[in-house]
Amino acid sequence: MEELVKRFAEWYKEYGYPVLFFGVMLENAGIPVPGETAVFVAGFLASEQGNRFVAEEHGAYRFTLAWVIVVTFLAATLGDNIGYWLGRRFARPRLQVSRRFLFLTPRALERMESYFHRFGTWTIFFARFITGLRVFGAMAAGTAGMPWGRFFLANAAGACTWATVISLIGYYSGEYLPTVAKWLGRSGMIILAGIIVAAALFYFWRRWKADSKVMSEK
How many CA atoms lie within 13 A of 79 on its CB side? Predict the structure, then answer.
């Protein structure tokens, strides 16, 4: 993680905001690049200590916190809409005619539709804070046929919150930047692992309940 932070800092010295924009946009469109780290480091570079860091080289970009948040918000919103469109345009039509798409099956589509009908808004809002879900959440929403208006509102609200929170964490990390970056990455993995475990337990509980009902009826 520390090496990744240093690498982003070097890229920002040379290219500035475009690195932030494309890093965030590509991750939210479904390409697994470290978009959250890009935001975190950009937030740090907007601080007084970060500005001293980039000032060491002549002509390096100077960052401001407000622009980091705005650029991150726009990139995250655009990237998620691209991911949503890819899922809606390519994955959903194949699954609707009983054809597979990558690892997805028509049966999986039915479950996704049911899930996003009930929990889609909150899923899209919180997904960008969770490693892994941030990459595939929008594409899953498009594949499941979540109405675009509801998706857009949840996506924009989540993007605004995420952009502000991660930028501020970077901005105030100061000399503890590598340590904070490490724990920021771990927290996302821990949350993802917790969700997977909870989903597995819920699945087996449903199976056990269904089997118990069948046995009691015999």
Answer: 28
Asked if 81 contacts 152 with a C-beta cutoff of 8 angstroms, the reply is: yes
Name 104's bridge partners. 101
**What SS3 class is residue 101?**
strand
Map residue 64 onto helix, strand or coil.
coil
Whether the CB-CB separation of 77 and 110 falls below 8 Å is answered with no
Residues 6+ apart with CB under 8 A from 152: 81
Can you tell me the distance from the alpha carbon of 166 to that of 161, in angstroms, rounded to the nearest whole number?
Answer: 9
Model confidence, pTM: 0.77
**Which residue type occupies 110?**
E
Instruction: Please report which residue ranges of 46-173 form alpha helices under DSSP H.
Output: 48-54, 65-86, 92-96, 106-127, 133-143, 148-173
pLDDT in tens, 48-74: 776 666 655 545 567 889 999 999 999
Pair of tokens at residue 33: 């690049």
